[in-house]
Specification:
Low-confidence stretches: none
Order of helices and strands: EEEHEEHE
Mean pLDDT: 95
Number of helices: 2
Shape: flat
Oligomer: single chain
Strand content: 35-45%
Number of strands: 6
Number of domains: 1
Helix content: 25-40%
């Protein structure tokens, strides 16, 4: 099993004093879970990698929107579309390892 986490990114087209935020899509992340799949393990894992994912800056933000536990062979929509159009995945989802 692996944990699939998706985010939202925003960019500030204004200034720090007068922000003008625009949503700019998001990113996908996988975290190998092994056999840890209880709700408390999943929540603890999300909290453990949150600092590696989320970012706050006066001109840019990225934050977690949601997550779910998926099978090891799960592919994101972006990975599937690459496979459909190019025959291979050129840009795989970033994998975060727990230390």
């Amino acid at each position: 099993m692996k944990l699939y986490i998706w985010t939202q990114c925003r960019e500030n087209y204004g200034t720090a004093e007068q922000p003008y935020w625009k949503f700019k899509g998001g990113m996908d992340y996988f975290v190998p879970m092994g056999k840890r799949v209880s709700d408390s393990d999943v929540t603890a894992t999300v909290m453990a990698v949150r600092g590696d994912i989320e970012s706050t800056h006066p001109m840019y933000e990225e934050y977690i929107l949601g997550w779910e536990v998926v099978a090891d062979d799960y592919m994101t929509d972006f990975e599937k579309s690459q496979l459909d159009f190019e025959g291979f995945v050129r840009y795989p989802t970033k994998v975060l390892e727990l230390v």
